[in-house]
Amino acid sequence: MQPAVRSVRDILVSAARAELLPRFNRVAHTRKADGSVLTEADIAMQERIADALLAQWPDTVCLGEEMQSAQQQQLIRSPRPVWCLDPLDGTSNFATGIPYFCVSLALFEQGKVQLGMVYDPVRDECFAAQDGQGATLNDAPLQLTDSGHVLSQAIALVDFKRLEPALAQRLASATPYASQRSFGSVALDWCWLAAGRGHLYLHGRSNVWDYAAGQHIFRAAGGHACTLDGEPVFTQSLTPRSSVAAVDAALFGAWAEWLGVNIK
User: Fold this and answer.
1) Domain 5-142 belongs to what topology?
2) Which residues lie below 8 Å from residue 145, measured CB to CB, with a gap of 6+?
3) For a Cys-Cys bond, which of 47, 55, 84, 155 suits 106, CB 3.0-4.6 Å?
4) pTM (2 decimals)?
5) Fold type of domain 151-259
């Protein structure tokens, strides 16, 4: 299945402009059982996008972050192509007025990501990658090259909250990179790395709707990534995955070595 990128982009862009931007920093929020933030924008986006995708591609199914877990478990194993949707990645930022959030969508087929798309409505930036066709930002090719940096010169995007305490302490006390950022949207983090806005990445535990599209775009742009266990990041399952990444091979090797990752 190869849906037209432009058709998918139109669905995400129109939904984000209608449902997200008018509510940005103007919406009440609640807390889910895991403590994460939920707003009416999350629900409105999920319903609108899922309806549009299934109307245009009726032989697919759509798995959304805001579904019940039993439904997610059923859909992730579907023999049909699966749309995996995070209707609002960076909800805490969105509800607080921090302009770093997006909508993230991936298409799985036969255990592989066939299409990844992430749309940032604040900057009107659409990152996309189809299997085997490279990555783009607003239709312009994204291609990472050698950064020219050694590990001690790199800027790292690190989510300390979800790291094992021993690793977080080691990073804080024996920092191997030049500086660190934590922006609050997994999908956008991957895409910013794909655009060269940072050099290293580390996340201890993210869900498939958070990382699937972004990591596909990053890999398509020429980035290098694995889990802390040295395995490929993507797996078509609901089990959270860790992520280690760098924008070029030399940095990736040095970063993995410092972390003690045995790349398989």
Assistant:
1) Fructose-1,6-Bisphosphatase; Chain A, domain 1 (3.30.540)
2) 222, 248
3) 84
4) 0.94
5) D-Maltodextrin-Binding Protein; domain 2 (3.40.190)
CA dihedral 179, 218, 73, 33 (to 10 degrees): 30
User: Which residue, among 9, 58, 64, has the nearest Cα to 210 in the 3D structure?
Assistant: 64
CA–CA separation, 189 vs 166, rounded Å? 24
Q: Which two tokens stand for residue 51?
A: 């309806």
CB 42 within 8 A of CB 15: no
How confident is the prediction along the chain (264 residues), in pLDDT tens digits per residue?
Answer: 667 899 999 999 999 999 999 989 776 656 555 556 568 888 999 999 999 999 999 999 999 998 999 999 999 999 999 999 999 999 989 988 999 999 999 999 999 999 999 999 999 999 999 988 999 999 999 999 999 999 999 999 999 999 999 999 999 999 999 999 999 999 999 999 999 999 999 999 999 999 999 999 999 999 999 999 999 999 999 999 999 999 999 999 999 999 999 987
Q: Could you tell me the residue ranges of all domains in the chain?
A: 5-142, 151-259
